[in-house]
Automatic annotation (TrEMBL):
Residues 1-12 have a biased composition (Low complexity). Residues 24-95 form the DUF7792 domain. InterPro entries: DUF7792 (IPR056694). It comes from the Eukaryota. Residues 1-22 are annotated as: Disordered. It comes from Populus trichocarpa (Western balsam poplar). The lineage of its organism: Eukaryota, Viridiplantae, Streptophyta, Embryophyta, Tracheophyta. This is DUF7792 domain-containing protein.
Amino acid sequence: MSSAAAAATSTTVPPHGVEEKTVQEELSLPILLADRVIKSTQEAESSKQDCFDLAKQVDHLSQMLRSAVRLAISTPSLYDRPLRRIASDITKTLTVH
């Protein structure tokens, strides 16, 4: 692969002229999706206990994501690559099902 092709496929550096999203922006979608899952579980008509358990776990996840946003805001020099990866993985998980 040429160096130009390698540069084009790199996900760590945004293309020239494109500003990278802030950590807060990256985490906002997983938080929104978690809130939607919680709402859906509360509206479920069947498997209420399973839905309650799922809602409890997703609520805990949502609280941790909100804590991560507060940490990112209060710590400007935070190494944010792990948070971005986690946000991406959570978004994929919550949108697949």
